[in-house]
Amino acid sequence: MSDTQVKLYLDRxxxxxxxxxxxxxxxVEHLGRCVYGGLYxxxxxxxxxxxxxxxxxxxxxxxxxxxxxxxxxxxxSGYRWEDxxxxxxxxxxxxxxxxxxxxxxxxxxxxxxQWTRRTVVEPLITINLxxxxxxxARSIVEYCNHPSGTYLSxxxxxxxxxxxxxxxxxxxxxxxxxxxxxGHKSAEDYGKLAVESAKVMKWVDPSIELVVCGSSNPxxxxxxxxxxxxxxxxxxxxxxxxxxxxLGNREDDTxxxxxxxxDMDRYINTVVATCDYVKAKKRxxxxxxxxxxxxxxxxxxxxxxxxxxxxxxxxxxxEDVYNFEDAMVVGGMLITLLNHSDRxxxxxxxxxxxxxxxxxxxxxxxxxxxxxxxxxxxxxxxGKGEVLKPIIQCPVFNTKExxxxxxxxASAVLNEDGELVLFLINKSxxxxxxxxxxxxxxxxxxxxxxxxxxxxxxxxxxxxxxNPFNIVPREVxxxxxxxxxxxxxxxxxxxxxxxILAK
Length: 503
Ligand code: AHR
Known about the structure:
Elements: E1 6-11, E2 15-18, E3 25-27, H1 54-63, E4 67-70, E5 94-96, E6 101-103, H2 109-119, E7 122-126, H3 134-145, H4 151-158, E8 169-172, H5 187-204, E9 209-212, H6 225-234, E10 240-247, H7 254-259, H8 261-281, E11 289-297, H9 324-338, E12 344-350, E13 359-361, E14 367-369, H10 373-382, E15 385-388, E16 391-393, E17 396-397, E18 405-406, E19 408-415, E20 420-426, E21 433-440, E22 447-455, E23 474-475, E24 480-483, E25 486-491, E26 495-502
Parallel strand pairs: 1-21, 3-4, 3-12, 4-7, 7-8, 8-9, 9-10, 10-11, 11-12
Antiparallel strand pairs: 1-16, 2-15, 5-6, 13-14, 15-19, 17-18, 19-20, 20-26, 21-25, 22-23, 22-26, 24-25
Bound molecules: alpha-L-arabinofuranose (AHR).
């Protein structure tokens, strides 16, 4: 084996778990131009009769989005959902304290549900446990999910929605451990409020599934004690615990940035361990699952956002322009999620349009795909199925903050079409890497159906309005071959790859 030779072993029987469709979700918050100017822009030449941008809807469909978390985020902790339903002209305009903007409430719960029907995605609603509590928690479920015959369900019907929205997944607040959060609470206070809210919400509709707030990120000083305390109180009442992480490269150190994906992996392991510790302590038969409902790269826009005019309507906040190294990190984060598919059942890339997003738009102008769009699209398209455990022998590297980071990341999915799909990342900026993959226990021989490579010799290059297809993946031939049960691949330097094998 040469210095850079990588060996990967895949066995048909070594299954980590099955990817839930909900692993390929996104997050839409009333923040900046995500909703206004992103999803919704009445008057735009591509707007439909409800004001939804059809060009954005097309991109959302192409992206393969399955579920969308809404309406926040920090926004939700000061939000009154009632202000966003009923006749638009009667809806109040308000100061929005989380982001210092003006909220017009022209788009609300029912518009969001209609938008999800047009994009064919599942809605996931976050409730306000910052300024509100048990009463509004039960009311919103009754308004959305109760068929009819009560004040709130009949109000929904009066608003034009005869059929219940039937929303299955609900988040019990957002980042309640964070001092920046409106209505921030101690773990004990939050745990008790989450339990009482969960009780009444499930009494209104026993079929719903609930996500309790974990830490805002693994760097919080209260992580993972927050999880242990909250779950001690709320374990029996909830189905998932949330995780959030944003990675960045402010120090402009590409290899260290790529290595940060390890933090996501360790974070998941710690939360799983904490859930299972509480399970054992309670002698519970129930296994708690993870909802990674905010994850992405976020750092480019942080300085610019400090000079945004306060109290504007839909200002250009958090508009990160992504480059190729960001796409490599997002690709690595997706591989991490796949490789934890036994416990991570929901995941939402934050966010969807304009705000730290794969889709960008210009008001009154076009929509385009950022670099991070592509690894997501292909992983969602080909990554639904059984994830196999990748046993990898690979050179490692060290960075300022991390040691022994593998040069190649891998995930393998036996998907619903019987294809074996390999997602591979070569982090080396100089070396093309030969990879040998040994396939064991498969009943038939595979052939290489497709090879998609996404690479750039400029890590800082991206896609813009004027150059929207600057960095795009390409399909290549002769990059790999199969002899017997061995697949041989040459990974381009600094590349994300998807290899689709069919029988
Ligand atoms: O996605 C942007 C913000 O990041 C969300 O509002 C908040 O939940 C997180 O801190």
